[in-house]
């Protein structure tokens, strides 16, 4: 499985204006060419993964709307199945997988999700276990995932050392805020030996943002 974390961030690494706020205001800085770049990459991957909070705050379609080609499978890992019934992921026909825990098997939303033609996978107990989930996804032909997560989802995949590359569209703005969502939130690493090293593979100053492409340091991954 190849995992690409793809995010739009500020200079100080913020994803939103405030804690658990929508990321949509940041997209006001992008033009059609910038949006085509995002959607072109969506058309190249097998699946897009976002967290439940993104569904609630942004209600995204998670489709490839600017470029011709396939729409990726949409994957939403969540321990809570409390989605708005009106969410676009339910009303649009694209293949969607809700990944949740064994404890949620009897949740009333499971049948609601399935009634809308969406798939439910169970992996883990107290929280979604990505190391259980990924083989299930590979069995469904999903071999490259674009993670457009918030700080907590991103932390989970980095903490498990599942990320192969990072693509960042860095806007020339400062947002600030000690509680504002950043690229990586969660518990964080308290030991320098546990941090994850990446190498800068590509940098380009574009009209409205800087593009940074990092790849995982294979030597460090082998060391762990």
Automatic annotation (TrEMBL):
Alphabetized GO MF terms: 5-amino-6-(5-phosphoribosylamino)uracil reductase activity; NADP binding
Keyword list, A-Z: NADP, Oxidoreductase
GO BP terms, alphabetized: riboflavin biosynthetic process
Gene3D superfamilies per the UniProt record, alphabetical: Dihydrofolate Reductase, subunit A
Domain Bacterial bifunctional deaminase-reductase C-terminal as annotated: residue spans: 2-200
Pfam families: RibD_C
Domain of life assignment: Bacteria
InterPro entries: DHFR-like_dom_sf, RibD_C, RibDG_C, Riboflavin_Biosynth_HTPR
UniProt keyword annotation of Transferase present: no
Pathway(s) it belongs to: Cofactor biosynthesis; riboflavin biosynthesis
PANTHER family, alphabetized: 2,5-DIAMINO-6-RIBOSYLAMINO-4(3H)-PYRIMIDINONE 5'-PHOSPHATE REDUCTASE (PTHR38011:SF7), DIHYDROFOLATE REDUCTASE FAMILY PROTEIN (AFU_ORTHOLOGUE AFUA_8G06820) (PTHR38011)
Name of this protein: Riboflavin biosynthesis protein RibD
UniProt source species: Pseudomonas fluorescens
């Amino acid at each position: 499985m190849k995992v690409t974390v793809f995010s739009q961030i500020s200079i100080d690494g913020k994803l939103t204006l405030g804690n658990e706020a929508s990321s949509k205001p940041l997209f006001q800085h992008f033009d059609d060419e910038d949006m085509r770049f995002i959607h072109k990459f969506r058309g190249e991957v097998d699946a897009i993964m976002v967290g439940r909070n993104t569904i609630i705050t942004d209600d995204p379609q998670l489709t490839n709307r600017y470029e011709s080609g396939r729409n990726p499978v949409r994957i939403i890992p969540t321990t809570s199945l409390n989605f708005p019934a009106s969410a676009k992921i339910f009303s649009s026909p694209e293949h969607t997988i809700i990944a949740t825990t064994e404890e949620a098997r009897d949740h009333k939303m499971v049948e609601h999700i399935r009634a809308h033609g969406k798939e439910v996978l169970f992996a883990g107990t107290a929280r979604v276990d990505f190391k259980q989930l990924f083989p299930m996804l590979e069995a469904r032909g999903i071999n490259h995932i674009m993670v457009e997560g918030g700080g907590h989802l991103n932390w989970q995949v980095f903490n498990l050392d599942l990320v192969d590359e990072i693509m960042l569209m860095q806007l020339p703005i400062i947002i600030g805020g000690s509680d504002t969502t950043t690229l990586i939130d969660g518990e964080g690493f308290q030991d320098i030996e546990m941090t994850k090293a990446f190498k800068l593979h590509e940098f380009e100053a574009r009209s409205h943002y800087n593009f940074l492409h990092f790849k995982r340091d294979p030597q460090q991954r082998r060391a762990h």
